[in-house]
Design goal:
The protein is of the alpha/beta class. The protein is about 35% helix and about 15% strand. The chain has helices at about 5, 20-35, 50-55, 70-80, 95-105, 120, 135-140, 180-190, 205-210, 225-230, 240-250, 300, 305-315; strands at about 10-15, 40-45, 60-65, 85-90, 110, 160-165, 195-200, 215-220, 235-240, 255-260, 275. The strands form two sheets. A six-stranded parallel beta sheet has the order 8-7-6-9-10-11, with helices on both faces. The protein has a five-stranded parallel beta sheet with strand order 3-2-1-4-5. Helix 8 links the parallel strand 6 (about 160-165) and strand 7 (about 195-200).
């Protein structure tokens, strides 16, 4: 390929946040790399997600500094310009990402289909139509087929008999009751597995109350380091959170407990996963979650039992493995 042809096939992707969305954007970036359509692929994202994004083999990562203002965006545009991209795909659709496109107006660009009618569509509760997965929408905008399998690479992980439990979530309505998590952990230990509790720094106190002395606690750790640890897990149980997407990106079987959101909204983990949902008429009530149940009962989470989750998780006992 001639140098001028190679230069014309350099792809830049923009996805600043949040964690789960950046991980799914990495799946699309990996698809672009593996397609062979582009000679180079770069992702522009916040610095807090940069090390994790570099776990995509062959992906160049350009970082946006924390609390970035207009001057920082102008500098970032200069860094992107120096990389000499030939095409820009906005996988965010935010004011900031649109401004980046304006600052680089000479680069052919496109924005992925955000399906902004999601808020209107969830009003129908469980009757909402199945929405296209966000990774499919990302790949459609890039013009490449989506991929299957892990896309975040950790060198030669040796799987352990350990299950990761993620009890926290940004929104209160996405959290399964604490007593269910405690019972689930006991059932997992009784089957010959050890338990690792996983969460952010703000969840340390809650996890300490849940964990037994023999459990691992992976709390408040940098994302890339946490990914290396999680790669050792046999499976992960989580609510509808970014860490569920991280597990899927690492190729770990992940089980998601859905409450105010559900699978039809198109944001399920991309990869091997199972899910438990109460499937009430009022689900889904929100595309993201909320601080309080709009109906005041939170039955979408309270009615999900440990027996249901264990059945969907499908882990055996020590003699079964």
């Amino acid at each position: 390929m001639a140098p001028e042809q190679a230069e014309r096939s350099r792809l830049i992707l923009i996805r600043f946040s949040s964690m789960g969305d950046v991980i799914l954007a990495c799946a699309a970036a990996a698809a672009a790399i593996r397609s062979g359509r582009y000679t180079a692929v770069a992702l522009v994202t916040k610095s807090e997600y940069a090390r994790m994004a570099r776990m995509v083999t062959g992906l160049h990562v350009i970082e946006l500094a924390p609390a970035a203002g207009l001057v920082d965006l102008v500098r970032l545009a200069g860094t992107v310009r120096a990389w000499r991209p030939s095409r820009l795909v906005d996988l965010h659709g935010s004011i900031r990402s649109r401004l980046m496109r304006v600052l680089m107006f000479w680069i052919p660009s496109v924005q992925y289909d955000r399906q902004l009618d999601v808020r209107r569509r969830i009003i129908g509760g469980s009757s909402v139509d199945q929405m296209q997965h966000v990774v499919d929408r990302f790949c459609d905008a890039i013009g490449v087929p989506a991929i299957n399998g892990a896309w975040l690479q950790v060198a030669d992980p040796d799987k352990t008999r350990m299950v990761g439990l993620v009890p926290g979530a940004a929104w209160a309505t996405k959290r399964w009751p604490v007593d269910r998590w405690r019972e689930l952990a006991a059932q997992i230990r009784s089957r010959g597995y050890s338990v690792a509790w996983i969460g952010g720094a703000g969840e340390a106190a809650d996890i300490q109350l849940l964990a037994e002395p023999e459990d691992d606690q992976w709390v408040g750790r940098p994302l890339a380091g946490l990914a290396r640890q999680m790669s050792l897990l046999n499976s992960v149980v989580a609510g509808d959170t970014g860490l569920a997407h991280l597990a899927a990106g690492l190729g770990i079987p992940v089980h998601v407990i859905y409450g105010p959101t559900n699978e039809r909204l198109g944001y399920v983990p991309w990869g091997e996963h199972t899910a438990t949902s109460a499937r009430l008429e009022c689900q889904p009530c929100s595309p993201f979650g909320s601080d309080e149940c709009p109906l005041g009962h939170h039955d979408c989470m309270k009615s999900v039992t440990v027996v249901q989750v264990l059945g969907d998780l499908r882990i055996g006992t020590a003699v079964d493995r």
